[in-house]
Amino acid sequence: MGLADSLSDRFGIQDHGSSVRTELLAGATTFLTMSYIVVVNPAILSGAITPQGVPQGEVQSMLAVVTIIAAATATLVMALYANRPFAQAPGLGLNAFFAFTVVGALGVPWQTALAAVVVEGLLFVALTAIGAREYVIGLFPNPVKFAVGTGIGLFLAIIGLQAMGIVVADEATLITLGSVASNPVAILSVLGLFLTLGLYARDVPGSIIIGIAATTVAGWALTRFGPVAPDAGLVAGTTTVTYDITPLAGAFVSGLANVEAFTFALVVFTFFFVDFFDTAGTLVGVGQAGGFLDETGELPDIDRPLMADAIGTTVGGALGTSTVTTYIESASGVEEGGRTGLTALTVAGLFVASLALVPLAAAIPLYASHIALVVIGVVMLRNVIDIEWNDLTHSIPAGMTILIMPFTYSIAYGIAAGVVSYPLVKLAAGEGRDVRAGHWALAGAFVVYFVVRTGGVLTGQL
Predict the structure, then answer these.
(1) Which is nearest to 380 in space by CA: 305, 328, 323?
(2) What family is it from (predicted)?
(3) Burial 339-349 (b: 16+ CB within 10 A, else e)
(4) What spatial distance separates the first Cα and last Cα of the chain, rounded to whole Å?
(5) Could you give the CA distance from residue 395 to residue 378 in angstroms, rounded to a whole number?
(6) With 0-12 CB in 10 A as exposed, 13-18 as middle and 19+ as buried, what is 384?
(7) Are 343 and 333 in contact (CB under 8 A)?
(8) pTM to 2 decimals?
């Protein structure tokens, strides 16, 4: 029996109406569409994860290695345990929440933030193992579930636009348009963004990574051969690449010391909420595209891919990166015909192979890598169509969720605003019978948090 026959039998490829060649091609397509995370995740996290005495450039290369290992591990579990063509990696939005809200705004040490990721992953493993998915889903109002993706999209977009010099701070209006026509970084960012959006619209595989690479090369060429001065910021600073991740691996253990329970619980809760529903929504969406759903619209054996996500999150947090989630870009591989775990196995293998490209990832400047945030942010806005906008008891909590996230620079605050407003609006509309006890309990908990957080009670660090 040849290798192709062995793979076909192992993954049941013929039973799914596919072929080994199709599965391999699908895996390569999925990898190309999501490979940008190897560049973007380190760019976001390197400002928050700061091991003492380690230059930021080295931290960025460490994070690239950890990103690859976490993605490969989770996707390998998806392939061998769940036998589904879904790929996983540290999630956009969750890494921004880690860096800008948990470490930045809340002042949580990065080691403790990693501990929260590990705890969230273990909680996810436990709940998935005992089949508590339906109960957890029922605790959250539908308008909030449907609005989270759009809110995160806006949050990612504003982060990206700021890094690109297109949106800047302003004393009068808080934010405004930057000096785009006179700022080389902003000019090149705009050109790179539209190039990437054009490639994405044409369904070019790897469009985001192509756009990032083209923008980076253009910045280097303009600095090296063109009229742009070296200090204009078009090229990344000199970095020392390292594959030694020991300053990050296991750092979560020290983060468990002196934990302030309430805030730590909120961070774990938010990681869990966004990860859980982002993964569940992606699995159902991609499953629909691949014809995996049953007659009731459910993905059979969904606990298996959820377990892959949970294991990936736990491993990633232990090694030094933020929460792992299932990528919507998996749909590109499914559209190419991927139907089994061999597609995911191919993605995992390509992630491992990309370890050789870590030096190139470390050379990507911030403005170029953040093109991905704007592109993905725009794409995530399409989730807004799932909201029942003609029903005020849905549109108000959904709208609060979407608006509060970018305006407060916090995914957690957006979720909290939606959860608090839902039972209040339902009660005011005379539909209090639709509100479950869990809705009121969550709303009450978030009200307490807002009082503690904004009332000056929570002034210390974790």
Answers:
(1) 328
(2) Belongs to the nucleobase:cation symporter-2 (NCS2) (TC 2.A.40) family. Azg-like subfamily.
(3) bbbbbbbbbbb
(4) 58
(5) 20
(6) middle
(7) yes
(8) 0.82
Classify 91 as helix, strand or coil: coil
Quote the CA–CA distance of 8 and 20 in Å, as a whole number.
7
Report yes or no: 124 and 310 within 8 Å, Cβ to Cβ: yes
Q: Which two tokens stand for residue 295?
A: 């007659």
Integer Cα distance of 160 and 261 in angstroms: 32
CB 147 within 8 A of CB 405: no
Instruction: Return the structure tokens found at 455.
Output: 């009332």
Strands 88-90 and 167-170: unpaired
What one-letter code names the amino acid at 437? A
3-state SS, residue 302: coil
Beta bridge partners of 168: 176
**Could you tell me which residues come within 8 angstroms of residue 353 by beta carbon, excluding any fewer than 6 positions away?**
none
CA distance 323 to 330: 18
Q: Are 77 and 69 in contact (CB under 8 A)?
A: no
Q: How many CB atoms lie within 10 A of CB 127?
A: 18
C-alpha to C-alpha distances, 218 to 38, 40, 185, 188, nearest whole angstrom: 20, 18, 11, 8
Residue 168 three-state SS: strand
| Separation of alpha carbons 218 and 420, rounded Å | 47
d(CA 272, CA 124): 7
**What's at 107, amino acid-wise?**
G
Tokens 């976490």, residue located? 70
Residue 324 DSSP label: E
Residue 405 has φ and ψ, to the nearest 5°, of -55, -60
pLDDT by residue for the chain (462 residues), tens digit each? Answer: 578 888 888 999 988 889 999 999 999 999 988 999 999 999 999 999 999 989 888 999 999 999 999 999 999 999 999 999 999 999 988 899 899 888 998 889 999 999 999 999 999 999 888 887 666 766 778 888 888 888 888 988 998 899 999 999 998 998 999 999 999 999 999 999 999 999 999 988 888 989 999 999 999 999 989 788 888 889 987 667 889 999 999 999 999 887 888 778 888 988 887 787 778 767 876 786 678 877 766 788 888 999 999 999 999 999 999 999 999 889 888 888 899 999 999 999 999 999 998 988 878 888 998 999 899 888 888 878 888 999 999 999 999 999 998 888 877 788 889 999 999 999 999 999 999 888 998 889 888 877 776 776 544 444
Q: How many CB atoms lie within 10 A of CB 239?
A: 17
Question: Do 117 and 322 contact (CB within 8 A), yes or no?
Answer: yes
Cα distance between residue 70 and residue 49, in whole Å: 16
